[in-house]
Amino acid sequence: MLKLLALDRFTILLVLMVLLATLLPISGQLAYYFNILTTVAIAVLFFLHGAKLSREAVIEGMLHWRMHALVFIFTFLIFPLIGLLSRPVLEPVFGQQLYWGFLFMCFLPSTVQSSIAFTSMAKGNVAGAVCSASFSNIIGMFITPILVSYFILGQSQHDFDPTKSIVQITLLLLVPFILGQLLRPFIFPQMRKFPSVVKVFDQGSILMVVYGAFSSAVVAGLWQQVSGITLIYLTLACSVLLTIVMLLALYLPKWLGFNQADQITIFFCSSKKTLASGVPMAQILFIGQPLGMIVLPIMIFHQIQLMVCGVIANHWSKSMQE
């Protein structure tokens, strides 16, 4: 219950950032320096994630390749396929840019912290979740830009080259993560003394990016382009997408013969999309595009997935105790 309350607080803070950006958007030279500060915060966050990840858990998790392969298929094949097939229905309703945001969300890797937290809460394979979620984020730094370049920007910007974006994402996310891994023997003992540090950077950097993204979007006229009924339709579309994927993630592992602990891990790692990596990627990939429109779907989907997964994880945890 405490975890769910914490998630609710973060949801409230996200909404407050959107309201703050709507009422007091940051712009001009101040926005430039704020973006630099945000970039530094994101780099520090991924450095801490690298230092936090146990190498023993990585090695143990890597041996379970069948489970990781199925999570990979859900994350980078099933999600994108549903997003692409929904285009004839969603693009006329949302418009091109908001649909791009929905499709970009489908191309993103899984979450790390919430996948591990919910797997642990529901008594799943935690080591497998650590490895699978982390691998999803690392490989997503390369796959997501390629998917975006081919299915989104490649259709409107024929000279778009994903190589530059991959290099930028690698420098911002992967390099700090690797440095954290290398310095783990020195950093992790200090992190254990201050366990809230990663959470502060995790949530704080996301809040900063959301505020910056929505500030620029508000200045560009976001709320003149997105109506209340469009937000309702977007929430419904995200809910339908999550329902379809969760049903597949619930029954397919059973059919393939995975044990109960692995089924739980696959369910939580396969059904979520990352906001922490997604917003920084969007900043790099969609330069010159209305970023608020691009990140709005992942913000809504993120809240839905946390609330639904929290209820399911709590239910499964109680069921195993009985």
From TrEMBL:
Highest taxon listed in the record's lineage: Bacteria
Q: Which InterPro entries match?
A: Na+/solute_symporter_sf (IPR038770), Put_Na-Bile_cotransptr (IPR016833)
What Gene3D superfamilies does the record point to? Answer: 1.20.1530.20
User: Which Pfam family would be a valid example here?
Assistant: SBF_like
The positions making up the signal sequence are none
Q: What is this protein called?
A: Bile acid:sodium symporter family protein
Q: Which organism is it from?
A: Acinetobacter junii
Q: Where are the transmembrane segments?
A: 7-24, 30-48, 69-86, 98-119, 126-153, 165-183, 204-223, 229-252
Keywords for this protein: Membrane, Transmembrane, Transmembrane helix
